[in-house]
Amino acid sequence: MMQRAKFIFLRFGAQLIAFAVFLLIYFVGGQLYPAMQKPQVFFNFFINDASLLLVSIGMTLVILTGGIDLSVGGVIALVSTASAAMLRSGVSPYIVMPLMIVMGIALGTLLGWIIQVLKVQPFIATLMGLTWHAD
After folding, report:
1. pTM assigned to the model
2. Which of 75, 89, 111, 116 has the fewest CB atoms inside 10 Å of its own CB, making it the most exposed?
3. Residue partners of 84: CB distance under 8 A and separation at least 6
4. Could you tell me where the beta strands, DSSP code E, fall in 19-121?
5. What 8-state DSSP symbol labels residue 115?
């Protein structure tokens, strides 16, 4: 039994520690702020932060492969601003959503092309991508 527990901790120790820290902070926060004890608040963490979770998964993969990508925030800001402008002008959300996905993919592909074909260092190319914004 001890051998199995040791194997599980060695294999999944980082995830278990992260989950334990999350639970500890959640329960301490529940004691300090009683409204946080409602189950809906727990689920709101995952509902409201789903986009950040997806971005963090992608960034984790980039970092694990030894790369760097500074443009994520700039691309998110540009795509969000463009979608808000289109929605405000009356464009259907069914058109805006796929168009914004294509826009994000196109910007990422452009940066990848600059890095791969033009041989620009990823730090420099993605730093340029970080500064994209809609004025």
Report:
1. 0.65
2. 89
3. none
4. none
5. H
